[in-house]
Amino acid sequence: MSNNFKKENSKTEIEVKNEDNSLSIFEKYLSVWVGLCIVIGVAIGRLWPAFPNTLSKFEYAQVSIPVAILIWFMIYPMMVQIDFSSIFEAGKKPKGLTVTLVSNWLIKPFTMYFFAWLFLQVIFKNLIPAGLAQEYVAGAILLGAAPCTAMVFVWSYLTDGDPAYTLIQVSVNDLVLIFAYAPLVMFLLGLNNLTVPWDTILLSVILYIVIPLTAGYLSRKYLLRHKGKEWFEGVFLKNLSELTVIGLLLTLIILFSFQGDVILNNPFHILLIAVPLTIQTFFIFAIAYGWSKLWSINHSVAAPAGMIGASNFFELAVATAISVFGLQSGAALATVVGVLVEVPVMLALVKIANKTRKYF
Prior knowledge:
There is one protein chain. The chain has one domain (about 5-360): Na+/H+ antiporter like fold. It is built from 18 helices and two strands. The protein has helices at about 5-20, 20-30, 30-45, 50-55, 65-80, 85-90, 95-125, 130-145, 150-160, 165-190, 200-225, 230-240, 240-260, 260-265, 265-295, 300-310, 315-325, 330-355, and strands spanning about 60, 65. A hairpin with a 2-residue loop joins strand 1 (about 60) and strand 2 (about 65). InterPro entries: Arsenical-R_Acr3, BilAc:Na_symport/Acr3, Na+/solute_symporter_sf. It holds the Pfam family SBF.
């Protein structure tokens, strides 16, 4: 990677954050804001059902367009920082890609299945009916076989990840996802009639990668040419940085306004499902992050590598669970719990990654 990109990346991702006290306050208490947004979202879903009902009309291929727009707010600040000439340099460093591909496709789906089976069908055997436990395990498998596409850009940003390399990691995983998701899930579930919503996968790739990447490239090129590098880094990026956190919080409100009834009607089972999902998240992060440390991978690559494996493409998992098992199924509930668990747990992993940066 060129020295110019390193210098540019260092300033835009680290100095801008430190200089922006408002963003520091946001990040410092982000877990509190997340909790409040979850509560607000559930309350809106219960007390003002017209809100989620109206938003649900703006969907295509089971992808919420309003949520996609908010995710653009989260992803764009990272995309616009990418020095696109550095993508080719990043692609010449295979270690980070190896870590994320092996952990995501050869380890994660199988450990997810193991932890879900162990807790939901063995340890919690007397607390969950057998048939329902099987459906919960199925939902966990759908989550475990779908590495994150959109939200990982947020986690990478919050850990000062290399935006160019993160883009490569996510893009390669998306290519594998298109071909490997259905066979892998069919193998783990033992299903021969699994219907994967391919339109959901392809649309998500377009919405969460292609569009914000194109917008970032065009706007970066325009602003650097007409405003200069100093204004771009010192003014534009500094003012833009809050969009990531604001977009995350608004997305949570919308997501949980849709799931309010499900969460409130199944509080005990949600806690039981959350146990293996939480353990799996920490476990797979430890594998990818620890492997990166042992392999002497730079922290700006190691942190996103761990985050991709730890987080899930929950939009795809939810859509698949609904299309295969039904809206009211245990599998669908398990994927919703994945959404509920992911953000607080991923914020904890962000803190771990930031505090351990000095060891890389």
